[in-house]
Amino acid sequence: MSELPTHWSDRLGRIDRRWIFLVMGLAIVLPLYLPLGLPIKASPMTKAAFDTVENLHEGDVVFVSMDLDPASTAELEPYYRAVILQLKRKHVRLAFATLWYQAPPLVERWLRETVDEPLAPAGTEGYAGLPDRAYVRNVDYINLGFREGRENVMLGMGADLARTFDGKTEDGVPLEQIPWMANIHGLADFKLMVLVSAGAPGAKEYVQYVQNRYALKMVAVTTSVSVTDLAPYFQAGQLLGLVPGLSGSAEYEILVGKPALGVAGANVLNAGHGVVILAILLGNAAYFAGKRRKKRMKP
Predict the structure, then answer these.
(1) Each residue's pLDDT tens digit, 46-58
(2) Roughly what angle, to the nearest 10 degrees, separates helices 73-89 and 44-54?
(3) What pairs with residue 242 in β-bridges?
(4) Is position 95 within any domain?
(5) Interval 86-131: pLDDT, tens
(6) Which of 24, 63, 116, 199 is the most buried (most CB within 10 A)?
(7) Which of 86, 195, 177 minimizes the C-alpha distance to 130?
(8) DSSP state at residue 247
């Protein structure tokens, strides 16, 4: 009795999984060097966040809460860089702070790279927007640093910002020596709050503890896993904009006019998702084809 030829579904089921890992690796690496160029359209939440910042005026004071850790930078850093460029070209004043003890070294590095230095000076390749400039610490912006206390710190900032931070910046400059801080007594005195939030304490707690109490205007970016928790606050108008993770960051970069880390990351996500979908389709096709073949072989 001759042996039946091996069916394609059997061969597919016995494929060495290392080939799958190789294909996935190529799907991650190649888009970084050969961008897919797929169209990116901003969601209503991302567009609302962009428009809110765009409505600011020169000289407005904006509070930026940097509540994140190194593990969340892949999703949140692209948005941070894009929104800082947008804020700087609007010529607003900036006040930074964080409620996460892991954040200060990261925040200091980002400030050096994005605020102390221009992000898009005149002549930047691939950028047609207004150029920004280097901001001067304790002149154009301040860093209030880290305070432990989670929600209690939020409440303290709402009532008396200077007292919460001992009346001085992270590097010891008295707040009373900074002219544009003279009219900033609490969170309600900022024109806008930008929340870069990886989790708790972060955007959710800001909404729950201080947003309604002081009628604060806030936009937020968060990791993809937290979007479902924050989306109802956008729908209720308590968040004026919400940027969802890496995909939202890519959308924001397109709106700002300077594609960078977010768009590159979106290319990788799209290619990786394509490989996963293809693997699912092939796996199901092999399963049902093999099942049908076995039924036909039964006497």
Answers:
(1) 999 999 999 999 9
(2) 30
(3) 220
(4) yes
(5) 999 999 999 999 999 999 999 999 999 999 999 999 889 889 899 9
(6) 63
(7) 86
(8) H
Quick check: is 1 in a domain? no
* pLDDT over 70 at 273, yes or no: no
Going by DSSP bridges, is the β-strand pair 141-146/241-244 parallel, antiparallel, or unpaired? unpaired
What pLDDT does 40 receive?
A: 79
What H or E segment, with its residue span, contains residue 95?
strand 93-98
Q: Tokens for 184?
A: 């900033």
Give the rounded distance of the alpha carbon of 25 from its chain centre: 24
Please choose, from the candidates 214, 211, 213, the residue with its C-alpha nearest in 3D space to the C-alpha of residue 202: 211
Q: What sign results for the dihedral spanned by CA atoms 16, 21, 24, 29?
A: negative
Structure tokens of 256?
């700002």
Q: Give backbone dihedrals phi and psi of 33, rounded to 5 degrees, phi first.
A: -105, -25
Query: Could you tell me if 133 and 162 lie in one domain?
Result: yes
Q: Which range marks the domain in which residue 28 is found?
A: 8-34+267-297
Contact at 8 Å (CB) between 68 and 100? Answer: yes
Largest CA distance in the chain: 96
Contact 131, 118 (CB under 8 A): yes
CATH for 250: 3.40.50.10160
SS3 content of the chain, % helix, strand, coil (to 5): 55, 10, 35
Phi, psi of 177 (to 5 degrees): -90, -5
Identity of the amino acid at 7: H
Same-domain check for residues 168 and 274: no
**The overall pTM is greater than 0.85:** no
Q: Is residue 106 part of a domain?
A: yes
pLDDT per position as a tens digit, 68-82: 999 999 899 999 999
